[in-house]
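Duplicate of #3305? Posting structure anyway:
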């Protein structure tokens, strides 16, 4: 693929995390796209790392990483759930053995406050102005190992777990 290697996929995952963190203030479809793409990019990094000419032991090493990391185990489940619509085959790599999944989406909409000065005796508004900006903020909940966690926090943990492992393998 265009002479790319695992570091290219690693950088793609980093960009996906940046987009996800920014997507909390995006439009609904873009926000959800960023959510799903992050999990796929983080999970697919494993495929790039274990692809030939990588040593055979990397397959088992990365498998253990995903089993040890709740965040990366969740990446696998969510990426596969997005790909297949739902998970109904195979075993989760999470500690509980239950599939991790996105269980909720919340949106907070802030509206500007309208301040008006009225002359009630004349029945007219003398001034009318907006105070503050309007904004929309999305958040998602992921259930992993029986607990509900913030998806963006979990994504950050997944990248931190990849970073720790890559440093320990002297790859980063």
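Output from current build:
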């Amino acid at each position: 693929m265009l002479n790319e290697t695992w570091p290219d996929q690693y950088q793609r995952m980093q960009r996906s995390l940046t987009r996800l963190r920014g997507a909390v203030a995006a439009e609904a479809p873009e926000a959800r796209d960023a959510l799903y793409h992050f999990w796929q990019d983080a999970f697919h990094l494993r495929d790039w790392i274990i692809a030939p000419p990588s040593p055979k032991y990397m397959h088992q090493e990365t498998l253990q990483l995903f089993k040890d990391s709740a965040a990366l185990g969740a990446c696998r489940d969510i990426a596969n759930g997005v790909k297949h619509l739902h998970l109904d085959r195979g075993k989760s790599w999470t500690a509980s053995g239950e599939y991790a999944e996105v269980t909720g989406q919340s949106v907070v909409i802030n509206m500007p406050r309208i301040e008006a000065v009225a002359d009630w005796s004349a029945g007219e508004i003398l001034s009318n102005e907006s105070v503050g900006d309007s904004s929309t903020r999305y958040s998602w909940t992921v259930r992993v190992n029986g607990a509900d966690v913030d998806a963006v926090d979990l994504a950050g943990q997944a990248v931190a777990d990849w970073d720790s492992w890559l440093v320990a393998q002297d790859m980063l």
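Confirmed duplicate; merging threads. The beta strands are 101-110, 113-119, 124-131, 135-144, 147-150. The mean pLDDT is 90.
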